[in-house]
Amino acid sequence: MPQENNINLSIVIPIYNESIFIPKLFDQILEHFNFSNIEILFIDDGSSDGTNEILNNLKSKKNYNFKFDIIKIDINSGKGKAIQTGIKNSKGEYVLMQDADLELDIKDAKEMYEIICDNNEIKCIFGSRYLSGKLKKNNYFFNSLVGKINTLIFNIFFSQSLSDVHCGLKILHRSVIKKINLTVNDFGIEIDIASQIVRNNFFIYEYGVSYYFRSKAQGKKITWIDGVKSFFYLLKARFYDNSRYTNISIMYSSIYMAYVGSHFGMGLGNSLFIIFFFLVGSVIGINYKFFSSSIIFFSIFIGSLFGKGNGTTLSVLIFFIFGLIFANYIKNYFSNSKFKFYF
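The structure corresponding to this sequence follows.
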């Protein structure tokens, strides 16, 4: 729904000590987003390198048509906090998040904006550095590896098929913004955003974007520590930030899937199967609540009554697959009813 102030797009740009990039960034914004129905929110997250002075100087020139706002956070609080601050102060029907360091191209942001405006069914688009047929420059193997591993784990935890959960270029419709409540203050904000979008049943579209890495000498701030912390945020987002019904279901399905694992292997192998199936159960518990999950358990139990030795294992697997199919049918059947929290 259009906003009362006629702002169609809010571009939120978190900034911390980016003085060398701001002039070129501003020129790119002028080239691609110089319209009166757009607002640019620069969130200065406690910069100490003259960033705020440069921003105020650019604002004073008034050689632009968009609405220009600078929000200063006195003490550096993290990218996540800056994005939260920008979103809370945004007024547009769409909110676009863009990093200030020029690793991601403003031109790609414009293309994403045009796509989402032209299709009312699309409510959020994430940029992806790995889908792109565009230019890419990246010498940081470890950062790329961690990003891909995190994305894989996210996909497993949330039943998604994203290629780049950490990309800083995203655009969301106001209906999505109203549903999410961001709380992570550092680089884990990307996981926080993605997990809450999925939880609220919005589909995430991806768009390939260019990527030009910058070195630590150029001011790159994300470190291996942030990579380790991201694993914590993945676990927190999936196994802690849930409703009571979901947490009960996770415990319940993890236990019975560990029982399924006990039918495989011997000795150490059997223990590893139990651990693996326990983790599988936790994912089932996220997607199926108590009663639909019980259908899976009941099917597995019936399967365990058939055959001997390897025959029992095969029977358990067959009935497990059957249980998943039937549980999914029941879950969808009750998805719009008052009983959906139980299925």
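The CA atoms of residues 139 and 269 lie 39 Å apart.
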